[in-house]
Design a protein that fits this description.
The chain is of the alpha/beta class and 358 residues long. The chain has helices at residues 14-32, 45-51, 57-65, 81-86, 91-98, 122-125, 166-182, 197-210, 223-232, 244-257, 296-308, 313-328, 346-357; strands spanning 3-10, 36-40, 68-73, 103-109, 129-135, 147-150, 156-159, 186-191, 217-222, 239-242, 267-269, 275-277, 331-332, 342-343. The strands form 3 sheets. Strands 2-1-3-12-11-4-5-10-8-9 form a 10-stranded mixed β-sheet, with helices on both faces. A two-stranded antiparallel sheet has the order 6-7. Bound molecules: 1,4-dihydronicotinamide adenine dinucleotide, 2-OXO-4-methylpentanoic acid (COI) and magnesium ion. It catalyses: (2R,3S)-3-isopropylmalate + NAD(+) = 4-methyl-2-oxopentanoate + CO2 + NADH.
Length: 358
């Protein structure tokens, strides 16, 4: 049966990088005879410009009907960033919550060819392969009440609510424990249980769940220490599980260990394995339109999509091997450039991956 993939290019570098991922997907479709069809829709600023809203009903309907979604990135200085992303009913967060994509997998893997691009010394980072499991549809990004209010003394006050229910913690815990079981058997739960009650509950539930996973070694770490440990000795981690905001921040930090945020893919999954796949970075307005963005995080997200939502493991493996081959050839976009390597554009990088696949 034909599978339907919805591509949401978004804004800024989004259209540039998704175009390269689509070329790669078309190539594996032909090579492996995949029964997939592609459709596109607007989200973010491009949707505001066309329809006045960041998440048009048509886009949400198409997303609901698709077997998997590949997203570039949304946002930019032209649009109100809260409209774009943060208000739960809108934009990217509306898409994530509307589809119940609570399980965000963000693998931070250092390709050995990029050791020189990492911000850490080779001996600290070589062989790095960690998985950050981030809760994606709850926590402070969604908690109510939220807003800006005027106090009696006339001063304005901004407020948000950090809330997690037990069931939300359990379902992300399950994703993390299962992932740890399949990988190195180590899970570090990151919280701020010395200050925030919500994360005291988070820690308690992780401890309870650990009884069902005797093969997984569970540890706990406060988020401030976790940020420090990530840049001090990242290989101590195997799987990390944390809430929405902490995971957002820690994964950007982890990105630099791999050389660039342009290398970090992600999968956002619902309970049945339906998913949206996107690079961890944003729309990079500072480099949009210049043809210099790194498309590899999006191409690697497409590989995750084939593996997790379409069960096309061979095609996914082929894409990942092609990315590795291109790096072997010394081809680098600006963000991962190092001495002796050949600088290529976004399009040239996409073309090189396609050539490596052939
Ligand atoms: N998933 C999404 O759609 C996300 C959207 N955003 C939105 O993106 C806009 C920009 O946000 P920023 O905080 O600047 O984060 P950003 O991730 O877009 O950019 C941060 C830095 O990384 C660089 N960068 C990002 N992706 C790159 C790539 N593929 N190749 C080379 N360099 C890359 C950018 O040039 C910039 O210097 C904002 O409107 C923000 O709300 C931010 C994060 C995620
Ligand atoms: C709207 C933001 C939460 C997007 C973001 O920074 C992310 O998902 O990494
Ligand atoms: Mg982020």
């Amino acid at each position: 049966m034909t599978k339907h993939i919805l591509i949401l290019p978004g804004d800024g570098i989004g259209p540039e990088i998704t175009a390269e991922a689509l070329k790669v997907l078309e190539c594996v479709k032909a090579r492996f005879g995949l029964a997939v069809e592609f459709d596109q829709a607007l989200v973010g600023g491009s949707a505001i410009d066309a329809h006045g809203v960041p998440l048009p009903d048509e886009t949400l309907d198409k997303a609901r009907g698709a077997d998997a979604i590949l997203l570039g990135a949304v946002g930019g200085p032209k649009w109100d960033s809260l409209d774009m992303a943060i208000r739960p009913e809108k934009g990217l967060l509306g898409l994530r919550s509307g589809l119940q994509l609570f399980g965000n997998l963000r693998p931070a893997i250092l390709y050995p060819q990029l050791a020189a691009a990492s911000t850490l010394k080779p001996e600290v980072v070589s062989g790095l392969d960690i998985l950050i499991v981030r809760e994606l549809t709850g926590g402070i990004y969604f908690g109510q009440p939220r807003g800006v209010r005027t106090l009696e003394n006339g001063e304005r006050q901004g407020y948000n609510t950090y809330v997690y229910s037990e069931s939300e913690i359990r379902r992300i815990g399950k994703v993390a424990f299962e992932a740890a079981r399949k990988r190195g058997g180590k899970l570090c739960s990151v919280d701020k249980a010395n200050v925030l009650e919500v994360t005291v509950l988070w820690r308690e539930i992780m401890q309870e769940m650990a009884k069902d996973y005797p093969d997984v070694e569970l540890s706990h770490m406060y988020v401030d220490n976790a940020a420090m440990q990530l840049v001090r000795a990242p290989k101590q981690f195997d799987v990390m599980v944390t809430g929405n905001m902490f995971g957002d921040i820690l994964s950007d930090a982890a990105a630099m260990l791999t050389g660039s945020i342009g290398m970090l893919p992600s999968a956002s999954l619902d309970e049945n394995g339906k998913g949206m796949y996107e690079p961890c970075h944003g729309s990079a307005p500072d480099i949009a339109g210049q043809g210099i963005a790194n498309p590899l995080a999006t191409i690697l997200s497409a590989a995750m999509m084939l593996r997790y939502s379409l069960a096309e493991n061979e095609a996914a493996d082929a894409i990942e091997a092609a990315v590795s081959r291109v790096l072997d050839q010394g081809l680098r976009t600006a963000d991962i450039q190092s001495e002796g390597c050949q600088r290529v554009s976004t399009r040239e990088m996409g073309d090189a991956v396609v050539a490596a696949l052939a």
